[in-house]
Structure to design on (60 residues):
C-alpha cells in the first residue's frame, strides 16, 4: 500500500486550534468517539491529570 503524498492532513490542537508544524512528535493523541484528537504541548500539560484519568476532552 502506498501513501499519497498529496493527501497530507493538517493537524491542529483539538482544544486551542494551534496548527502543527509538520508531524507533532511531542503532542498528545487521544482516540475519542471513533476519531483521533490531537492536543498541543501546552493544552496537554494544563490537563495532564484529566488525560491520565482517561476523561474525554469534553470533561476538561
Amino acid at each position: 500500500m502506498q501513501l499519497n503524498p498529496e493527501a497530507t492532513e493538517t493537524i491542529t490542537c483539538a482544544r486551542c486550534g494551534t496548527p502543527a508544524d509538520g508531524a507533532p512528535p511531542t503532542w498528545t493523541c487521544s482516540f475519542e468517539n471513533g476519531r483521533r484528537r490531537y492536543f498541543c504541548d501546552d493544552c496537554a500539560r494544563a490537563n495532564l491529570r484529566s488525560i491520565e484519568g482517561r476523561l474525554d476532552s469534553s470533561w476538561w
The chain is about 20% helix and 15% strand. Residues 41-46 form the longest helix (6 residues).
